[in-house]
Amino acid sequence: MQAAEMNAVRAAESLLALSQQEELVDLPNHSLSASEDEGDSDGERKHQKLLESIGSLDGKKRWKLAERSEACLKVSEFNVCSEGSGEKLLLSDLLEPAKTSSSLAAVKKQLNRVKSKKAVELPLNKEEVERIHREVAFNKTSQTLSKWDPIVLKNRQAEQLVFPLEKEQPNFVPIEHVLSSWKARTPLEQEVFNLLYKNKQPVTDPLLTPLEKASLKAMSLEEVSVSSPRHAMLLPAFALKPRNHCKCHSLQAKMRRAELQRARALQSYYEARARREKKIKSKKYHKIVKKGKAKKALKEFEQLQKVNPAAALEELEKIEKARMMERMSLKHQNSGKWAKSKAIMAKYDLEARQAMQEQLAKNKELTQKLQVVSESEGENGAEEEELLVPDAVNEVQMCADGPNPWMLRNCNSDAKGEVQKDPEQPPEPVVQEVSESEDERPGAEEEILLHEFEERRSLRKRSELSQNAEPVGSQETKDSSCQEVLSELKLLTQKLNQKNHQSRKQKVSSVRTVLQVQKEECALEEEEPVLLQRPERVQTLEDLEDLGHEEYSQNKELPRPVMEEEKAEKTSNNQTDAPKEKKKKEQMIDLQNLLTTKSPSVKLLAVPTAVEELEDEEEKHQKQIIKEAFAGDDVIRDFLKEKKEAVKANKPKDVDLTLPGWGEWGGIGLKPSAKKRRRFLIKAPEGPPRKDKNLPNVIISEKRNIHAAAHQVRVLPYPFTHHQQFERTVQTPIGSTWNTQRAFQKLTTPKVVTKPGHIIKPIKAEDVGYCSSSRSDLSVTQSNPKRPSGHHKKQLKKISRD
Amino acid sequence: MKVKMLSRNPDNYVRETKLDLQRVPRNYDPTLHPFEVSREYVRALNATKLERVFAKPFLASLDGHRDGVNCLAKHPKSLATVLSGACDGEVRIWNLTKRKCIRTIQAHEGFVRGICTRFCGTSFFTVGDDKTVKQWKMDAPGYGEEEEPLHTILGKTVYTGIDHHWKDPAFATCGQQVDIWDEQRTNPICSMTWGFDSINSVKFNPIETFLLGSCASDRNIVLYDMRQATPLKKVILDMRTNTICWNPMEAFIFTAANEDYNLYTFDMRALDTPVMVHMDHVSAVLDVDYCPTGKEFVSASFDKSIRIFPVDRSRSREVYHTKRMQHVICVRWTADSKYIMCGSDEMNIRLWKANASEKLGVLASRERAAQDYNQKLKEKFQHHPNIKRIARHRHLPKSIYSQIQEQRIMREARRRKELNRRKHSKPGSVPVVSERKKHVVAVVK
After folding, report:
1. In this structure, are residues A406 and A456 in contact, taking their beta carbons and an 8 Å threshold?
2. For the segment B375-385, what is each residue's pLDDT rounded down to a tens digit?
3. Are B293 and A750 in contact (CB under 8 A)?
4. Basic residues bias located where (chain B) (predicted)?
């Protein structure tokens, strides 16, 4: 930039000098007045000069030496000028005299080659060069630093960061390394070491000590001589090659050791397992184990029958004996203490009855005579299935008339659709799905539950609002009424469903599994609308985040209709379309309400100002249309009404303490006497006059509570953009009183987790998946002398040109 | 007649072992648990109050130095080891668990200006007023051996600071110029200068290890690239910067402790505007150190207090002081991010908790859950006036308190004057300059 400016200044100076020169030159010209041609050519030259100097103003060209105009005898070699102005000194002009001599051909060639190259520019001063170096280096460094941008951003926005970032791997130092640096000093240590040395305990390769080796050698000799079958099995190598142990001695030892180790490990494993199983107290578990064992035995028996009929017969006898024992004993006869207590309960408790039946069935099974094994097995299977079936039915029933109604509603509302759909569907593939998705189920169910809570909570709030009868609550009341309609519908469907269930009791067990799956699917589908609806409470941290970031949509009413629609869909799965239509009408009305509350004031203002004489008819037409559109609403009257309502709502209410039927006849159609009513009516004290008593156009709300105000937030805090967002975050409870354990844990995860006693190292490129340069900074510095590289030079040139 | 009886499935309430927690079935129906907001508000209020009740950050004071503590260094591998250098040339190594000095070295004549550990933790370097750089072994010499440095480099000028490279056997000193040394050589492998004033401190970037930052007496902060052996950029602030510290999690962020009572967090790619101006101190800030998590930093000031700032806040979240603590010269945040050490004029090193009310030791899982919940509650209700008031309340010594008042008045007066000037001059002639831009004088390329 500076260079350019300099150039420009120089060019301007040259222009000035030129003009002065011209003046000087012009004077003799005029006085001499040579021929006109000459004058013409002179003018042309001047013109060219002028053009040139103007051209040089742009800063591209360098300063040119002023042209000498007068003749001179001495021509300095440094002051060579070309013939015409603006022409550069060419090499060919210089070489012209040398043309004749052929001896200089080689030189000429070289010079020709040189001609194609540009002249070297002046080097910049040192400071400038350094500045440029710095700039280039800075750009380079900031580029390398920019690669950290995504990581930094990610870490800043992360919900949870766990430090230290890299997983520490415990590095075990081999014992030799530790030992080599450590020496025995105290007498005790020395004694210990002496002992160790006496036994020639190896330090580096602790596979076998020399002593052990010797003993092993002796042993192996014995073994060979004995070579019992057990040993042969244990050490096949010994048995096969008895004479060769000098060579493969260590190999055998290793093998043997490995074998022994394996055996020991297996043993300890089995022992541990047996101990663990023994400890288990769960009856259910033992039941399952027993069943499994029985099945296994049966299978084995079957196989035995095929392979070895004699042994099978023996087994059969054993079974028969067991059966006899069973018949003799009182086991499973429903005569024990437990069975008696169950028998008492059985009258009222389905489950107890179930258990009793089960026991009897077992008895029957055990005392049944075994005839053909394959058939009986099939029957057994069938029985088992039968046993399973009522269980499931029971659970469903429990759901149906159990004590918590929302569980049931949830279950049923989900069930409705499926019960009708299912008969066509083959249940088998779905059952497979169940097995796959069993892990996810608890989560999904929880979601559903939470969702349910959400709705209930919002419902409650809305109903409260409607009870308060606020001026704004007109729409809310509608909503609540439609909610009531909804709940009624739901109740109806529930009843229907119950009937369905009872009629199809037999099928349900197979259907139930299907239900589960569909429930999950439902949950999945419901997740999206949850985000759209923006319920009062947010369940997860992500949602909270979203709340913080999302801009609050201006249309407050929109989410609600959507919710309603969804609910309507839910209910209308097995209903006619009528309720749906109703819902839609409701929606329409809502929208209209929205329109009427906002637009009229604007339009009423706009219309009278726009009156023009020319387009009277159109205007009238327009007015007509507007009038028709807003025929029903009178803004002022509406406002007055609203104000009246507000005043009424805020007025303290009288307390009526009359008890009908107290001291006189009561019943339908009879009212307590006026006298009594007057007597027991406590009149509310007149409050202070309203602030808006004399202001007809305003409603001043007097709901502000000074005592509560001390605890309320006055200014919207920073990250929130709308008060509703803030309110929502506050209204979302995070405690375990209102949330399930999992949700609670999720909601209270701390942002930064550090482990005590762990060193947190600075983040590394390898940690985040970048590869850092393998060369160390030091080596780069040492190999980097303080001279600009080729790349540097290029950039340097570029900058200097600018 | 149908009689309904209570019947429960034992699986739902019987524990498998007696060590299991009793399972309490809970009905989450919101209609059964009303007043969620108010109940949580009360809980939050109680949590905030308890936090203040249990806020006892001071843990220990390590005494033994016979002059003011001038510099501190952390051990890179051991959390319990701390090194300190004093104004009488003495270096001490401390064991934090025992709270005892385990080794004393008379390292220099005059001040120990700087101390830094090697990345492997086997040795450390000191520079002093006697123009020497000395390397010492971390382990104490054996019985009968003399306490001697591994290497000593005699320089021509006084070195005022030292920092070791994070990966390579190289270190940087500052004084007249920034020198980068190979550990094996007695001459610097490169020296970089820009300007002629003496340089106070030099710090290596812990992430992009070839980057260095230094601050000089002529009010500037200079960045260097060790590989290309050239300075990169210079920013000139209103007043002198005492030291800088790089963020260990964000490669391009560093914070400068300035004489004008403020700290400035810069993005090194855009030096013309600091990312954040941290103001709360009432005297010159002498030292700053980042929490290893990169979310907070601690600053030590001449006003006899240390303050903890979140990186993205301009106001401090915590202030520590004691009656006996004088001008705090150096401060370090331990590598496990739980403690803070500060060395001060009156010859003591103090150990503080980084979170004043944190419970030390192992927490049971339920304790931790309760702690997390309380933390979230405090966060949730932090804007409510009563909770805010309690959480913000700190006791300050009178000197600091009165200084704060005084400075507030001064700032207000300055603001008013500027406003008046703007009001009475041609519109646009007195531009509004943001607080961030106000303190940056120039950026030199």
Report:
1. yes
2. 999 999 999 99
3. no
4. 416-426
CB B167 within 8 A of CB A776: yes
Q: What phi, psi does B167 have (nearest 5°)?
A: -130, -35
d(CA B173, CA B115): 10
> How many beta carbons lie within 10 A of that of residue A302, not counting itself?
14
- Minimal-distance CA residue of chain B relative to A161: B293
Is B43 at the interface with chain A, CB within 8 A? Answer: yes
pTM for the full model?
0.56
**Of the candidates B3, B30, B231, which has its C-beta nearest A453's C-beta?**
B30
For the record, the structure tokens of A313 come out as 């017969």
Is B103 within 8 Å of chain A by CB?
A: no
What are residue B320's DSSP bridge partners?
A: B306
Say what the ipTM of the complex is.
0.92
CB neighbour burial string for A324-350, b if at least 16 within 10 angstroms, e if fewer: eebeeeeebebeeeebeebeebbeeee
CB contact under 8 A, B28 and A453: yes
A758, A773, A778, best to mutate vs chain B, most B CBs in 10 Å: A778
CB atoms within 10 A of CB B317: 16
pLDDT digits (tens, 9 = 90+) for A735-755: 998 999 899 999 999 999 998
| Cβ neighbours of A744 in B, within 8 Å | 373
Written as one letter, the residue type at B302 is: F
Decide: A741 and A734 in contact? Cβ < 8 Å: no
Can you tell me the distance from the alpha carbon of A438 to that of B95, in angstroms, rounded to the nearest whole number? 54
Query: Which residues 235-294 on chain B approach chain A with CB closer than 8 angstroms?
Result: 248-253, 268-269, 292-294
**Which residues have CB under 8 Å from B124's CB, separation 6+?**
B73, B83, B115, B116, B117, B118, B135, B136, B138
Query: Is the pLDDT score of A19 beyond 70?
Result: no
Pairing of strands B328-333, B318-320: unpaired
**What is the SS3 assignment for A80?**
coil
Low pLDDT (below 70) residues in chain B: none
pLDDT score of A73: 61
- Chain B residue numbers touching A163 (CB-CB < 8 A): 292-293, 337
Task: Count Cβ–Cβ pairs < 8 Å, chain A vs chain B.
Answer: 208
CB contact under 8 A, A163 and B337: yes
- What residues in B contact A133, CB-CB < 8 Å? 228, 230
Of A64-68, A217-221, B354-358, the least confident: A64-68
Which burial class, exposed, middle or buried, applies to B160 when counting CB atoms under 10 A from its CB (0-12, 13-18, 19+)?
A: buried
Report the pLDDT value the prediction gives residue A628, as an integer from 0 to 100: 79
pLDDT top residue among A276 and A117:
A276
Amino acid at B437: K
Are A739 and B16 a contacting pair at CB < 8 A? no
In B, which residues are within 8 Å of A726 by CB distance?
Answer: 383
Kindly identify which residue of chain A lies nearest to residue B193, measuring between CA atoms.
A130
Task: Tell me the C-alpha distance between B85 and B92, whole Å.
Answer: 6
> Locate tokens 């200068």: which residue?
B193
**What's residue A616's pLDDT?**
77
Task: Look up residue A87 and give its two tokens.
Answer: 């022409």
- Of B198, B257, B255, B193, the C-alpha closest to B224 is B193
Q: Per residue in A296-340, pLDDT tens?
A: 988 988 888 888 888 888 888 888 888 888 888 888 877 888 888
pLDDT exceeds 90 at position A193: no
Nearest to B337 among A734, A754, A779 (CB): A754
For A515-554, the pLDDT digits (tens) are 444 444 444 333 333 333 344 444 444 444 444 444 333 3
Q: Per-residue pLDDT for A91 more than 80?
A: no
